[in-house]
Amino acid sequence: MSQNETRGSETGMEAVTLQRLKWIAVLAAVAFIILLEYVRQSIYPFLNTWKGRLLLDSIIFTGAIFFFGAVFHLIERMQRRLEKQNRELLSLHTAALDVYRELALDSVLQKVVDQARALIDARYGALSLLNDENRIETFVTSGISAEERARIGDPPVGHGLLGVVLHEGHRLRLADLQRDPRSAGFPSHHPPMRSLLAVPILCSGPFRGNLYLSDKNNDQEFTADDEESLVRFATTAAIAIDNAYLQRRLRSLAVSEERLRIAHEMHDGLAQVLAYVNTKAQVVREHLKRERTDEATKHLDQLAAAAREVYADVRESIIGLRSAAASGSSAADALREVVATWETQSGISCRLHLETDLRVPAGAELQVLRIVQEALANVRKHSKAHQADVRVEQADGRLRITVQDDGVGFKPAELGRGEFPRFGLPTMRERAESLGGWFQLDSTPGEGTRVTIEVPAQIPIREFSRGAVS
Amino acid sequence: MSFQNVSRLDRTVRILLGLTMLWAGWSAGATAPETAIWPVALRLFAWLPLLTGLLGWCPFYAILGVSTRNRKSPSRDR
C-alpha cells in the first residue's frame, strides 16, 4: 500500500467515527421517542401519581445516561487514537532526527535499524541492502550481540521469508513466522523468533533494501498500526540512506579532486623548481670548469636558498594536509589549527577574526583551508611581516576570507619577473574560481599585502530553521 | 469488539438478571393489584441489564471509565 493510500485509510477511519457519531445522535433521538411512548402507555394509569412520575423520570434519566455514555465513549476513543498517533509521530520525528544526524553510511544503517526497533518496541531488528544482482550486500542487525551473530555464521542469502520480502518487495506481517509455509527455518544458534514485520526501503539511489523486526517486547503480535509506523519510518530512513550515500560520494569526489590538484601543483611547482635546480647545477659546473669559484659559490648559495625554500614549502604542505585530513573537526577548528601551526612555524604573530560560523559547501572546506595556508605561506616567505591577520566574514550568502600582513609589500604588476619560479598565486586563484568565487591580491610596497577570497557560503542550519518557522 | 466494557461473566449475570426481572414483572402483573406500579417498573427496568448484557457495553461503566473486560487479551484494532 502506498503512502497516499495509507493516509487515505486513516482519514477514512476518522470520518467513519464522526459519521457514526452523527447517526447515533439521530437514531438515539428516534429510539428515545419510541421508548417514551412505550413507557407512557405502560404507566398510563399511574401518570397522575408521584410513583408514576418518578418512574417516568427514572426512565428518562436512564435513557439520557445511555445516550451520553455512548457519545462520550466515542469521543474518548477518538481522543485516545489522536493521542496515540501524536505519540507515534513524535517518536517517528525523534527517530528520524537521530538518523539524520549521522552522515557515514554504515552508521546510518545501524541507526536506522536501532531506531526502528525502539520505535515499534521490537526485540530484534535487521536491515538488508541489495546489490544490482538482487543479492543481500549488507545485513545489519540490532538486538543480537556480536557473539551471537558470530555463532549464527554467514549473513542470510535471501531464502524463505526473507526472499519473499526481498524479491516481491511487499510488506509482511506474520503472527508466527515458523508456521508460514514459505518459511525456510532458522540456522543453528539463531535465537528463536515468532512474529515478523517486514517493510521495503525504497531509496532513490543505488540501494534497495528491507527492514525486518521480530518479536515485540510485550510478546504480542505486530499490529496494523505498527506496520504503518514502520512504513513511515522506512520512508524517512530511505532519505537518510540516500543522503549518507551522496555524502560518501561527495567525499570521495573531493579526495579525487584534491589528489588531482596536488599532482598539478607538484608538476607546476616542484617540477619547475627542480628544473631550476638542474639549470643552476649546470651553471655551477660550467663556472667550476672555468675555475670561477666566486661565481660558482654565488650560484651554490642560490641553490641552497632554493632548496631551503622548497623544503619549507613541502613541510608546510605535509602539515597542512595532515591537519585538514583530520576528520571529525569542524571547518572553524581546522582553520584555528592551521593558524596556530603557522604561528609556531613562522614565528610571526597571527590573529584569527572568526566573525561568523565558518560554513562552506560540502567538499569546499579543504579548498578554502588550502587557500589560507598558501596565503600564510607567502606571508612567511616574502613579506618580512611582524603581524598577520586572518578575517572570516559572512554576508548575503557569501563567505569572505582576508589574509593581511604588515610586511614590505610589492608591486603586483612585477609578479613573475623574479628568477625563482612562483606558482602559489595562480593556484589560489584556481581554487577560489573552482568554488564559484573569486580571488584578489592587493599590495603596495611598504604597506603590506592583502589576499581576499570570496566563495558562496552554506546557509547555517539555525537560520534556515528560523526562516522556516516564521 | 473493542467498544465493549462488560466481561463475559458480567454479561451473563446481567442477562440472567434482566430475564428474571422481566419474568417477575410479568408474573407479578398477573397477580398484583392493578394499582401496584412495581411490576411495571420491573418490566421496564429489566431491559437495562438485558440490553447492556446483550451489547456487552454499559453506559455507566463508559462514563465512569470502568471496564470489567480483561484488557490483556490481544486486540487487533489497538
Could you explain how this protein is built, in words?
The complex is a heterodimer of chains A (470) and B (78). In chain A, 59% of the residues lie in helices and 15% in strands. With 470 residues, chain A is an alpha+beta fold. Chain A folds into three domains: 3-99; 102-246, Beta-Lactamase (2-Layer Sandwich), CATH 3.30.450.40; 331-467, Histidine kinase-like ATPase, C-terminal domain (Heat Shock Protein 90), CATH 3.30.565. A five-stranded antiparallel β-sheet of chain A has the order 2-1-5-4-3, with helices on one face. Chain A has a five-stranded mixed β-sheet with strand order 6-7-8-10-9. In chain A, helix 2 (50-101) packs parallel to helix 6. Chain B has 78 residues and is mainly α. Chain B has one domain. In chain B, helix 1 (8-31) packs antiparallel against helix 3 (47-55). The A-B interface holds A 39, 42-43, 45-46, 49, 51-52, 55, 58-59, 62, 65-70, 72-73, 76-77, 220-221, 223-225 and B 3, 34, 37, 40-41, 43-45, 48, 57-60, 62-63, 74, 76-78.
Rg of chain A:
37 Å
The class by helix and strand makeup of chain A works out as alpha+beta
Tell me the helix content of chain A: 55-70%
The total of helices of chain A stands at 11
Would you count the extended β strands of chain B for me? 0
Global geometry of chain A: elongated
The shape of chain B, in one word, is elongated
Assembly classification: heterodimer
Strand order of the largest sheet of chain A: 2-1-5-4-3
- In whole angstroms, the N-to-C terminal distance of chain B is 11 Å
Number of helices of chain B: 4
Give the SSE order of chain B as H and E letters: HHHH
In terms of per-residue confidence, which ranges of chain B show pLDDT below 50 for 5 or more consecutive residues? 73-78
| Percent of sequence in beta strands of chain A | 15-25%
In sequence order, what are the helices and strands of chain A, one letter per element? HHHEEHHEEEHHHEHEEHEEH
Tally of separate domains of chain B: 1
Q: How much helix is in the residues of chain B?
A: 55-70%
CATH topology of the largest domain in chain A: Beta-Lactamase
CATH architecture of the largest domain in chain A: 2-Layer Sandwich
**What gap, in angstroms, lies between the N and C termini of chain A?**
35 Å
- Assigned CATH class of the largest domain in chain A: Alpha Beta
